[in-house]
Amino acid sequence: MSAPATRWVDVGAFADLKFGPGAPVRIDGHWVALFQLDGELLAIDNNCPHASAPLCDGTVLAGKVVCFLHCWEFDLRTGACDIGEQWNVRRYAVRRDGERVLLEWPGPPKTA
Ligand code: FES
Fold first, then answer.
1. Ligand 1 in reach of 66 Cβ (< 6 A)
2. If you take atom 3 of ligand 1, which residue's CA is the nearest one?
3. Residues in a beta bridge with 101
């Protein structure tokens, strides 16, 4: 039997997330930004692929986050970049389990 390709990672209690507008969380040394959009919880890579500004500090407008450094836009539901698909950021499935927030992370479970 092969290991699962993804795993659900507990990224913390919803009440502890600091949305401003995105809430950064760190998984396996990688930063992900969580956003709330129309009552939905969404997650994309936090690093802007242009010059690494944190997308969690951008501005949310019409379902996109606008990077604060040079205004590239990323669709919060798909990760698509308005400049071109080679600049798309990865999106992640995310859900709540009661008060906890779980994010689907690529890769098999970590072993101790
Ligand atoms: S760093 Fe995000 S658009 Fe330049």
1. no
2. 70
3. 12, 96
pLDDT tens track for 49-65: 999 999 999 999 999 99
Residue 55 Cβ contacting ligand 1 at under 6 Å: no
Q: List the domain boundaries for the chain.
A: 6-106
CATH of 6-106, one of 2.60.120.260, 2.40.128.270, 2.102.10.10, 1.10.260.40: 2.102.10.10
Q: Are the beta carbons of 96 and 13 closer than 8 angstroms? A: no
Q: How far apart are CA 52 and CA 3, in angstroms?
A: 32
Is 18 a residue whose pLDDT tops 70? Answer: yes
Token digits for 70? 């040079």
**pLDDT one-digit tens code per residue, 43-99:** 999 999 999 999 999 999 999 999 999 999 999 999 999 999 999 999 999 999 999
Give residue 6's pLDDT: 87
CA distances from 105 to 6, 8, 42, 51 (A): 5, 6, 13, 24
